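Dig into this one:

. . .
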Amino acid sequence: MLQGDVGVELGRRVAAALRAALGVEITPAEAVIRPSAREGVDYQCNVAMSLAKTLKKAPREVAQAVVEHLDAADLVETPEVAGPGFVNLVLRAEWLQEQAAGLLGDERMGATTAEVARRVAIDLSSPNVAKEMHVGHLRSSIIGDALVRLLRFAGHEVIPHNHLGDWGTPFGMLIEHLIDEGWSADGTDADHSIGDLNGFYVAARKKFDADPEFVDRARLRVVALQGGDEATLSLWRQLVDESTRHFEKVYGTLGIGLGPDDVYGESFYNPYLAETVAELEAKGLTEVSDGAVCVFPPGFANREGDRLPLIVRKRDGGYNYATTDFATIRYWVRERGVTDLLYVVGTPQSQHFRMVFTAARQAGWLTDQHAEHIGFGSILGEDGKTIRSREGGTLKLVDLLTEAVDHAAAVIAERTAFDADEQAALARIVGIGAVKYADLSNDRERDYVFTWAKMLAKEGNTSVYLQYANARIRSILRNAGDVPAPGARVVLTEPAERALLVKLIGFPAAIEATLESYAPHKLGTYLFETATAFTGFYESCPILKPETTPEARESRLVLALLTSRVLTLGLSLLGIEAPERL
């Protein structure tokens, strides 16, 4: 019978042992069960080190009490106290073999769903209308999409929302430029399109900076837009729709499931801004500073000790980013009933979000809800600076992805087993997978260096290595001709077999650790370790060779199949495809 996360199960057993031996109550997590790096030891219990001072006992004495009262003979061999007070735990071969048999019939590879499902709103991607998505949008889109997949896999209801930059004073300039380009409010010129969003924006800006008459028209257009003039709104919608088509092309290339229904732009929250500020004022949380209405969350100051403000209404009566952020929290909590608000936004915004969350709790908009900023570092070029285009400008995301597929195509072209259509399909899978995995396999909070040679390498912690490992397994299974069915037996006779199976049953723990800190790189690390364990197994345990006994053949095919399932499922949760052949 599947135990799910074996570490949690061991934690339960250790907690029961402490209760029986010393009358101590701890949770399974407080048992501090960790995978062991020592050869021949699967897990290590470190609870004695943390409890010794509280119990006024030596760590080894506490550890010995755990060992003497641990009821886990069905799960582990006789436990041993090691070092200053660690408890070494070795899983029983019979138990491991039972787990393998159970996993054959489990599409989730032992991972359970949450006992209490959360309702999660997650802010990701957030490009700006009339501007191309650039490399700066890559991490938010990729990390956010992976977290959406992982949270849904864990059984939570997840509502992604793309906080589109689609409102504000620049739109007067942009709409006037649309009109100058021949667009009409009634849409009769529907054959018009904007081939280059950045070029369109630059042309509008250039005109705004050089032509006073255009400036006057643009300012009047802002007033018309904010006043709800239908002709202006129609042009604005056409501009938003045109931009959205560009964004969706990028999302489609990346395999990210953001669509029109997931767009909650700044314009969506615009009707809520006045009442949001009014509520802050009514609760006595605002002050007027230099003519602007501000909120001063407690605990935030600059180096001089001056309080830091969040401006919610500017001197001219306009609203600011903070106003929209407050309206966003207010909307998702009150009208959509979410339990969690996650913001996948660059690390430089961390203080802003801490201030917003603090003020939102003061206002009563956040009570028992969880709000978290999931920050991330920058993508650097090989020179250690922010990655840029060859011309030195901001690198368009579509250009980066095109280059990724081109680089992958050169690698795939070395293989002669595929026709042109297969090569093109594989180049997309490998290239896009390489870009996504290069990001997701790194700690999101850190910057990372973007290099084609490294991300497309067939060795090391890359998606290509994982994809090749899985493709090799699929080839073995095809050559075997008979895929193991539920109930097929696993018999562990070699250390490499055991090492691989121990890694395979760690999939639930990897998912839990990934979601605990919203850190996709933890799943990536687990998948790499699993593929590496399979390589060691494959090299030392013949599967299809004539000298392999039928019993060993079936057992090893089971291990190969389970490895493929873990790699395929794990990569899919990161948004990466695992082709059958490569």
In short: Residues 167 and 267 are 5 Å apart (CA to CA). DSSP finds 21 helices and 13 strands in the chain. The two ends are 35 Å apart (CA to CA). The mean pLDDT is 92.
